[in-house]
Specification:
Nucleoside Triphosphate Pyrophosphohydrolase; DNA repair; alpha+beta; EC 3.2.2.31; MutY_C; 9 strands; glycosidase; about 40% helix; Endonuclease III, domain 1
Length: about 350
């Protein structure tokens, strides 16, 4: 109980003024929590404001086209969050009459909502005493209690959830959950935490045993795969290009991209010209080929690193299915493609 009181006292004096802290509307809390997964507040805040402005209610979000939702999400990454966000909005609207479930157990049944998000919504909106456990919480608890169980193991997940649940103030669960998340985000930071002004400095095991930089412990993930992506950027005389919509499962599902050729190694212009001979888009066409970026652009994802080159293909006419270059910014694209579009300055 002393831990909880100290934590919430710190929070009352140090919390940031954020829009989702001014409401207990489950739609806004859910929206903020989905956006802030894998995302820092300073990056996520403009997206939250944009979504609230364009889709002020869950009904508005449910009526939107998925392509518009993905476009508004563009730049945040982990696009499955946006697809799940849209799917859940439609489910809540059509099946639940626009009302979110009011218990942790029922919130877990919604697409894209896991233990952390369900706990946040249940505690903040419905005063249910269920503890949140995210990266910030893992860090605070592992350091304060000196716990070296890997946080990304099943044993660790269970142990930290039980510990957080035992500490939560059952009379003020929303305040406790927000306090421990805020404490991890701004005070007990991953690097250079403010230990010298920490209210727990006398009782923190990691600090007193000089283990701050060792905790929390995380099992190293498998080495990311290296892939070579070659995007074909068509430019016709009548200022058109080609964009393909990615189908099937994958990180960029339903986003648009330039035609893609994946190769086993980095390609020189001579090798790539040979590669293009069998491409359906160019087999019977006359074109000029140039390489936009000599050095591959490395786009790092959690499980793979994409070594990317953009090949400019000037051609008299697009052989099939084209879009006006003037409309290219209207399409939802991965941030890798968005950055190229901005730097190329069509």
């Amino acid at each position: 109980m002393i831990f909880s009181k100290t934590l919430t006292h710190w929070y009352s004096n140090n919390k940031r003024n954020l829009p989702w802290r001014e409401t207990n509307n489950p739609y806004y809390i859910w929206l903020s929590e989905i956006i802030l997964q894998q995302t820092q507040v300073k990056q996520g805040l403009p997206y939250y404001q944009a979504f609230v402005s364009k889709y002020p209610t869950v009904y508005d979000l449910a009526k939107a086209n998925e392509s518009d939702v993905l476009k508004l999400w563009q730049g945040l990454g982990y696009y499955s969050r946006a697809r799940n966000l849209h799917a859940t909005a439609k489910y809540v609207t059509n099946e639940l009459n626009g009302k979110f479930p009011n218990t942790y157990k029922d919130l877990l049944k919604l697409k894209g909502i896991g233990d952390y998000t369900a706990s946040a919504i249940a505690s903040i909106c419905f005063n249910e005493a269920t503890a949140v456990v995210d990266g910030n919480v893992y860090r605070v608890l592992s350091r304060y209690f000196g716990i070296d169980i890997p946080i990304n193991s099943s044993k660790g997940g269970k142990a930290f959830k039980e510990l957080a649940q035992s500490l939560i103030d059952k009379n003020a669960p929303a305040e406790f959950n927000q306090a421990i998340m805020e404490f991890g985000a701004t005070q007990c930071k991953p690097k250079n935490p403010y230990c010298n002004i920490c209210p727990f400095k006398d009782s923190c095991i990691a600090l007193n045993k000089n283990r701050i930089h060792e905790l929390p412990v995380k099992i190293k993930s498998a080495k990311a795969k290296k892939k070579h992506f070659n995007f074909l950027v068509f430019i016709s005389e009548d200022e058109k290009t080609i964009l393909h919509k990615r189908e099937g499962k994958g990180i960029w599902q339903n986003l648009y991209q330039f035609p893609l050729i994946e190769t086993e190694k980095s390609m020189t212009i001579e090798l790539f010209k040979s590669e293009l001979k069998n491409n359906d888009l160019l087999s019977d066409a006359t074109f000029d080929l140039s390489l936009y970026n000599k050095d591959a652009i490395v786009h790092k994802l959690s499980h793979q690193h994409l070594y990317t080159k953009f090949w400019i293909i000037n051609i008299k006419a697009i052989p099939m299915g084209s879009v006006p270059i003037s409309k290219i910014r209207e399409f939802a694209v991965p941030v890798l493609i968005e950055n190229f579009i901005e730097s190329f300055n069509f």
